[in-house]
Amino acid sequence: MTGFISTRAGVSSTWREPGRWQTIRSSRSGGRCYFRCRRQFHLWARRDAKAPGKSAAREPVSNSTGEANALKPPVPYGSMLERERKERPGSAGILGLRNFVRESRAIALDLYDKLRGIDESRRLPGALALTLDDAAVNEREKRRDELTGYLSNAPWISRVPYEIACRFLDWAFTDRPIARFWFLETVARMPYFSYLSVLHLYETFNWLHLAELRRTHFAEEWNELHHLLIMSALGGDAKWSDRFLAYHLSIIYYWLLVVMYIVSPRLSYNFSELLEKHAVDTYEQFLTENEHRLKALPAPAIAVRYYANEVAYTFQAFGDENGSAVETSRPPVQTLYDAFLNIRLDEEEHVRTMEACQNYDLVERLTSSPYLREQSPEDGVPAHADKHAEESSADQTGSRAAWNRWADAVNQAGRRPGPDTRSEDADQKP
């Protein structure tokens, strides 16, 4: 009994030691504070995320166009698909601040995932389990050069930067083909941005008017935009570091191309031709290497919609030898293989465009709107133009009447009193 009392007394005296209780209490409160801060940090980082933390390789997206098995974007805070739906023009300060907050959350989420040890192979694009052999791509380029001499005969000022860029891609995106394609498609839009900027400048100064050439480059940029959206849907922009690298290098690349186009348009077109041919070889190797895997995976919804509804980009539609508006069919998009096959065919058309732009005999036809020129066989007037002339006139008359009805409905809704002046008829715009 005495021993028990002495033990209790010793324990009691120990707890009464100066500062001991305060130390234990502070350590407990510090632990609770740590977990509370960790939870808040996680919620803040994922505030804009709609997908679950462990996103699967395939998530169903149901709609009326039969895209039940379409791939869903894995990272809404970085996905261009989400931003295309939500964002609107605004002041530069607001847009910059919004992007800073969005990317800050992305950095926080990346750090949080690394601390948790998230397996990237369970998320897009790693969950797709796709590969790309860089050595095989280089071998394809060598065979193409042996047959055509496109690289060995290129000017050194475009050939040397091109070879450096290819080595950089092999180093930065090893075993990450989707991220590599997203990077390529991001950079691939810069030439057309720069061409349009310089051509607009020339037209503002009244130095040069090349309306059809601007239309051609805009069509190319529109096509590359949808390539980029497809890669974003596959998770190519999931990593913050890839986005940081792509956007900052694109700014530098854009201004270099502006200077190059001002100095020598032919040299700028030649450099773009080299990059487009590299894209063709890369996609071709990718399709060959992953054929069975790609045919077993569904295509993203954006790819299904784009290639089902958009007229395929072809160089014939914007100034080839015949100049006619030819609609080239594309393979229907059902699987991921079909999507990449269509992209590879698009890149071949970009190659043809860049090759023709270096030939000023062909560009000579793109000096103005085709409606300013007299129709002749050289302009490639479609043979069925006269056949459908009356039908086209009737369609235009019907469209004008529908437009007038819509305008009247909008005007009547605007004069109607009440907080909600929208009319159901206003949605009948053709």
Automatic annotation (TrEMBL):
Pfam families: AOX. It is found in: Membrane. The chain crosses the membrane at residues 244-263. GO terms for molecular function: alternative oxidase activity; metal ion binding. Belongs to the alternative oxidase family. Its cofactor is Fe cation. InterPro entries: AOX, AOX_sf. Residues 417-430 have a biased composition (Basic and acidic residues). Gene3D superfamilies: Alternative oxidase. GO terms for biological process: alternative respiration. Keywords: Electron transport, Iron, Membrane, Metal-binding, Oxidoreductase, Respiratory chain, Transmembrane, Transmembrane helix, Transport. GO terms for cellular component: membrane; mitochondrion. It comes from the Eukaryota. Signal peptide: none annotated. Residues 52-76, 373-430 are annotated as: Disordered. It comes from Cyanidioschyzon merolae (strain NIES-3377 / 10D) (Unicellular red alga). The keyword rRNA processing does not apply. The keyword Manganese does not apply. This is Plastid terminal oxidase. Its main location: membrane.
